[in-house]
TrEMBL record:
Residue ranges of every copy of the Conserved oligomeric Golgi complex subunit 5 helical domain listed in the record: 10-215
Domain of life: Eukaryota
InterPro entries in the record: Cog5, COG5_helical
Name this polypeptide is given: COG5 protein
GN (gene name): Cog5
GO biological process, alphabetically ordered: intra-Golgi vesicle-mediated transport
Length: 644
């Protein structure tokens, strides 16, 4: 009838006036029934009713306008819900007694009633999330039916009708309207009420949790909606429909390329997150600034440190509602750890007496011990806090552990690698310059070895045992033990002349050296290459030069330069050691070796000494070289080719 009436004026024709009136009323009745059916079907999530109602509107040619009006209705309803949830006047009035304020009177909680205001606000927010979720579910359901339903005559899919003329899909249109309304209403509400602003900033994680829960519910609904379709007796109704990909039109399941619906939802929270993180950092920094007053000389007490750790744990626990918030708070915790490290480092004593190893602990050394122990306790406590966090994001954990590594710098300064210099300088005074070639040892080891053992034992008991970070201490004292072995082997290889009795005494010293460095490490075998050198060098004392030259330990374990240095001690006085040829003292030669760790440089110096010997033999017109010389030349060539 509509089609026949188009473009024709039928008014004034009495014969059909009653018919036209009946048709208009019938159309209105059909539309109203279809509207009621659509509302009921969407509300009860009944696709059969929704499909029937949509078919009516399609037949009447009003499908597009009807859908637009329905979606606009949902948007308007939610806008009203949001305004009501944030209405400060309602939130601050006792129930049942709403009184009007005077002109210009601001609505605010009465003193002592803030808790009730907050409780009412969060109840409203939970209710609002339920309302948003319900409305979203209904729009999703409507879109799903539109996506599946086709006109039985023309076979046109209803969603195509809606999307004609470049219109965006209804769920996208609805969601952008809702998220924009949330942003604008939250902004205006918190701009006009300090109490709302403080509530959202101070309890931001609670607000974020509500948003996250809403988002999870929306996604869950998207996953369930198809199952509901397939189990609600609608199979017959849609038998003629071509099945489409379930989620192509569902933005909650499949993000658009240029649109992130979850980000759109959370955009309304950005200003509150920034304020919350700023206050969180203040809460973390305040106890540290309190326990490190200007001019203070002592690290925090155990109770003060416990308070700092509790604050860190509390901030991380509260932020656990969201991975992104956890990461942001973890960055604040990292800054807190760094601040603690910087403040601690400022307390360290760097005076000369901080590295002395002669007398008892000085005041500066005691303070350094206290600072390092304080840093160690912080390190261990924060690690424990991280371990106890359930579902802590990997990126957040990495952020905190990286910050903990940074505070090892003050550790290093405090444990006093300055000790290293003092200890090793002191140790070098114990090593022998020469040993008698006659007589057998009548004591287990040389006097210098006894003194070295006593010195190391005293350094460990008087200085290092006060540190609680045993692993860290051993990491550093093991380096001292390796250095002690290096110096010992170096000096042992330079002893000249070395008789049989000297060899016996030196062999005993090698055995005692293991005992001497034992306090500096967990196990002597942990010293790696240094330990293997100590073990491999000892048997060489009693081997012939030919045997030494063919030893499998050569090059692999003991550097060629050390063995060549040792073979000089078996040569006649004319074959001078490199330091003798250069007219250096052993101490100066030892320093040169420290300054030239490269094997190439050391071998070049040895080659110079051998060449000088050849020259002196020719000058004296002697007929043969010392027996050890060809072995040394052969070894030098082997060493040079190994370098290449």
């Amino acid at each position: 009838v509509d089609y026949l009436s188009q473009g024709i004026d039928l008014s004034g024709i009495e014969v059909i006036e009653n018919d036209l009136l009946f048709i208009a009323r019938a159309r209105l009745e059909v539309e109203n029934q279809a509207k009621r059916l659509l509302e009921q079907g969407v509300e009860t999530q009944n696709p059969t009713q929704v499909g029937t109602a949509l078919q009516v509107f399609h037949n009447l040619g009003t499908l597009k306008d009807t859908i637009a009006n329905v979606v606009d209705g949902y948007c308007t309803g939610l806008e009203e819900n949001i305004k009501n949830a944030l209405d400060i006047k309602v939130l601050t009035q006792p129930s049942q007694t709403v009184t009007r304020g005077g002109p210009g009177r601001a609505a605010m909680p009465t003193p002592g009633n803030t808790a009730a205001f907050r409780a009412a606000l969060w109840t409203n927010m939970e209710k609002l999330m339920d309302q948003i979720c319900a409305a979203c579910g209904q729009v999703q359901h409507l879109q799903k039916v539109l996506t599946k339903k086709r006109d039985p005559v023309s076979h046109v899919c209803f969603i195509e009708e809606i999307l004609k003329d470049g219109q965006s899909d209804i769920l996208y249109k609805f969601w952008t309207a809702v998220t924009q309304t949330l942003s604008s209403q939250f902004q205006s509400a918190t701009d006009s009420s300090m109490f709302l602003k403080q509530a959202f900033e101070g309890e931001y994680p609670k607000l974020l949790r509500l948003y996250n829960d809403l988002w999870k519910r929306l996604q869950q609904y998207s996953q369930n909606i198809q199952r509901n379709f397939n189990t609600s007796g609608t199979t017959d109704l849609f038998a003629e429909l071509q099945q489409m990909e379930d989620d192509t039109q569902d933005i909650f399941m499949q993000k658009k390329q240029d649109y992130d619906p979850e980000k759109a939802l959370k955009d309304s929270l950005q200003q509150y997150e920034a304020a919350y993180l700023s206050k969180s950092l203040s809460r973390l920094f305040d106890p540290i600034n309190l326990v490190f007053p200007p001019g203070g000389r002592n690290p925090p007490s155990s109770d003060e440190l416990d308070s700092i750790i509790k604050t860190i744990a509390s901030e991380l626990n509260v932020a656990a509602v969201d991975p992104d918030l956890s990461l942001a708070v973890a960055k604040n915790v990292a800054k807190t750890i760094q601040l603690y490290g910087v403040k601690s480092e400022q307390l360290l004593s760097t005076q000369g007496d901080a590295s002395q190893v002669i007398g008892p602990l000085t005041e500066g050394q005691r303070r350094n011990v206290a600072v390092v122990n304080s840093l160690y306790r912080l390190h261990q406590s924060v690690l424990k806090v991280i371990t106890n966090q359930s579902s802590f994001p990997a990126a957040a954990e990495q952020t905190v552990t990286t910050a903990l590594k940074v505070i090892e710098c003050p550790y290093t300064a405090g444990v006093g690698l300055s000790f290293d210099l003092s200890v090793t300088l002191q140790m070098s005074t114990y090593f022998p310059r020469s040993l008698s070639s006659s007589g057998k040892p009548d004591v287990p080891c040389s006097l210098y070895m006894k003194e070295l053992q006593g010195f190391i034992a005293r350094v460990m008991s008087d200085y290092f045992r006060h540190f609680e970070c045993f692993d860290f201490v051993f990491d550093n004292t093991e380096a001292m033990a390796q250095r002690a072995i290096e110096l010992f082997i170096r000096h042992a290889s330079l002893i000249r002349p070395l008789g049989e009795g000297g060899k016996m005494r030196l062999a005993a010293d090698f055995a005692q050296m293991e005992l001497a460095v034992a306090p500096l490490c967990r196990r002597v075998s942990d010293l790696g290459k240094s330990y293997r050198q100590l073990r491999s060098f000892r048997p060489l004392l009693f081997q012939t030069s030919e045997h030494i030259a063919s030893s499998p330990a050569l090059g692999e374990v003991i550097p060629f330069s050390i063995i060549l240095q040792f073979l000089f001690t078996r040569a006649p006085p004319e074959l001078k050691s490199p330091f003798q040829r250069a007219e250096w003292s052993i101490a100066r030669y030892s320093q040169w070796l420290d300054d030239h760790p490269s094997e190439k440089d050391r071998l070049a110096l040895i080659r110079g000494a051998l060449e000088a010997y050849v020259q002196s033999v020719r000058t004296r017109e002697e007929k043969e070289f010392a027996p050890v010389y060809p072995i040394m030349v052969q070894l030098l060539q082997k060493a040079m080719s190994a370098l290449q």
